Amino acid sequence: MNFNDVKVILASKSPRRNELLKYITDEFEVIPSSCDETVPNGLDVFEVPEFLSVRKALDVAKSHPDSLVIGCDTVVIINGEILGKPKDIADAFNMLCRLSGNTHTVVSGVCLCLRGKTMSFSQHTDVKFYPLKEEDIIKYLQSGSPLDKAGAYGIQDGAALFVESISGDYYNVVGFPIAKLRLEIEKFLNLFN
Per residue in 79-130, pLDDT tens? Predict the structure, then answer.
């Protein structure tokens, strides 16, 4: 099966994923999942994004079994703890203080669903922040940008000034490991030939 032979659905409302998926195709529909994102106790933090991506993709695929549904979830992990989207400005401030001067891992889980078959994978990227000044954190928070992002920052916006180094896929940190996704889609669609 060719990529152009199937309808593509992005099971995410993330504007960043929407933009990145356009590198692969302009022909897709956005249908965000409304599934329960509760994670079972005992699941390793590095497995959480892939678990949630599968849950999101399957949720949307129930109503669209003949479409290629792409689910994704991205988390920031530091010292074995997941930093999700901040609850408020104070939470975002605390997250950025924790990331200051430290290395954290960004993990994206991606799931592909089509006609009852699924395939999923995870991508890891390590990001090191410079030590941050309080005034720089406050200025960044005033932009409003961090409130809808895991770990309270977007590497593609003002938080680019915080990054000392990155090891791995930059676009994974933005929210979609787009190069690996393209390869995995090709492999997945070959299962239908």
Answer: 999 998 899 999 999 999 999 999 999 999 999 999 999 999 999 999 999 9
The answer to whether residue 36 is catalytic is no
Candidates 26, 73, 91, 148; catalytic one: 73
For residue 82, give the H/E element and its range: strand 81-83
Q: Do residues 128 and 159 touch, judged by C-beta distance below 8 A?
A: no
How many Å apart are CA 16 and CA 14, to the nearest integer?
5
Token look-up 């492999």 returns: 187
In terms of residues, how long is the chain? 193
Fold of 3-190: Maf protein (3.90.950)
Q: Is the dihedral of CA 185, 111, 117, 25 positive or negative?
A: negative
pLDDT tens string 62-75: 999 999 999 999 99
Q: What is the reported pTM?
A: 0.93
